[in-house]
Amino acid sequence: MERVAVILTNFNMPERADALGDHLARYAAWPHDFYCVDNGSNLAPPSAYTNVQLLANAQTTAGWLAGVDRARLEGGYLGYLFLITSAEFVGESDPIAPLAQLLLDDPSAVGVHAALTPDSTTHWEHLKTRGGDRPRRTWMIDNICALYRSDWFDANNPFDPALPYAWGVDLEAGYKARSQGRSLWVHEGVHVRKVTDIGYRMGRMGMSARERQQKAGDNMRAVLSGRYGNNWYSRMVEEHVNGSMR
User: Which of 18, 53, 82, 211 is close enough to 143 for a disulfide, judged by CB 3.0 to 4.6 Å?
Assistant: First the structure.
């Protein structure tokens, strides 16, 4: 079995990072390495799993990419599994194996996301569970718990540092995959719960949730409209949300 690099960015949320690391240590039998990136935590101690340390908060995208850089030094990974501290695993099964097996079984697949629980807070309703335990094809995946094929990720650089808050990197990655005729999936065999803005409610993020949303939205619109034109949102989102693949 090919190894997976699990990459988590943590900023002042050690208890959430530790819970994710503990779950992996207990249940993830699929060969993997856990790269826990501390993003310059200044209000709480680093996670016990920290093995990549940034001196200051570089925001989400740069944190993930620091983990990717470390993983590339090791090499030989099937994929990069990206996590956030707003996520928590549900159940007592291996959360990596179904995602990794899909990439092994389907060479056209470049990304697969765990299904979100019904009570998860998310803008993307198509990622919530629809029942069963099988994968289903979709048009884009978020990065709450997303496994990307490493050779595709390395060749396409879908996580642009110009989008530091990670708003838009998921849309652009999906757009690139679809443009190449590659596939993206949601796997009903793995479930995670997302609790939006938990760090902001705890006063750990150094800004309000509203302030970050404003900055992230402005940044996403400026970067993607400059790159793809003023109709970028229609091309990347509306035609799929309103179309057959929802």
Answer: 82
